[in-house]
C-alpha cells in the first residue's frame, strides 16, 4: 500500500485529490495538512511514501518546504502540485528535488499515475515537462531573467503584479513589510527594472500572473 500525505491550504482541493486517489486500491491517504507546521507533525507521525505538496502555501512556500525536507534528508518522495503551467514552475521544482510536477488543471487520473511512479523511485515527467527539459538542454544559456529569482522573490513579483499592496503581501507571505521591501528591491535589481509598473508589465509578458 502506498501511503500518501496531502499538503494544500484549500480544503476543497484536498478533498478533490483525496477522492481521486481513493479510486486506486493500492493508494491510501494517511494524512492532510494546510501549512508547514501541520505538515511537519503529519510527516513525523505517518512517515508516508509520497507527499503531494502545493507550490503556493501561506507563510513558507512549497518550494521552501521542499528545500527543508531535502536538507533534513527526509525520505518522502515529493510531487509538487500547482495552478501554474509547467513552463513556469516544473523545472524549478525538479531542480529543487521534487520527483514530479502536476498542474491542478490537468487530468485527475495523472495524480494516480504520478503517485505510483514516484513511489517506485522514478520521476514522473509529463510530455509537457519532457519538452521543456529538451528545450533547456538544447539552449541552456537561454533562461529567462526571472529564473534567477529565489522562491520568495518570485512570490513577491507575482503579488506586486497582481496589484497587492505592500501590507497585503506581507500578510500573505507572513513576513514584515520591511522584508517585502527588501525582496522587491532585489527583484528590481535582478530584472533591471525601476518600479512596480515595469514589474507588472514584465510579469504579464512572461505569463507569471
UniProtKB/TrEMBL annotation:
Residue span(s) of domain Response regulatory: 3-119
Q: What Gene3D superfamilies does this protein's entry cite? A: 3.40.50.2300
Superkingdom is Bacteria
Per the record, the GO terms for biological process are: phosphorelay signal transduction system; regulation of DNA-templated transcription
Report the InterPro entries cross-referenced here: CheY-like_superfamily (IPR011006), NreC/VraR/RcsB-like_REC (IPR058245), Sig_transdc_resp-reg_C-effctor (IPR016032), Sig_transdc_resp-reg_receiver (IPR001789), Tscrpt_reg_LuxR_C (IPR000792), WalR-like (IPR039420)
Q: Which intervals hold domain HTH luxR-type?
A: 142-207
Q: According to the UniProt entry, which residues carry 4-aspartylphosphate?
A: 54
**Keyword annotations for this protein?**
DNA-binding, Phosphoprotein
Q: Which Pfam family, just one, is annotated for this protein?
A: Response_reg
A GO molecular-function annotation? DNA binding
Q: Specify whether Protein transport is a keyword of the entry.
A: no
State the PANTHER family in the record. TWO-COMPONENT RESPONSE REGULATOR
* Name of protein: Response regulator UvrY
Q: Which organism is it from?
A: Tepidimonas taiwanensis
Higher taxonomy:
Bacteria, Pseudomonadati, Pseudomonadota, Betaproteobacteria, Burkholderiales
Name the gene behind this protein.
Answer: uvrY
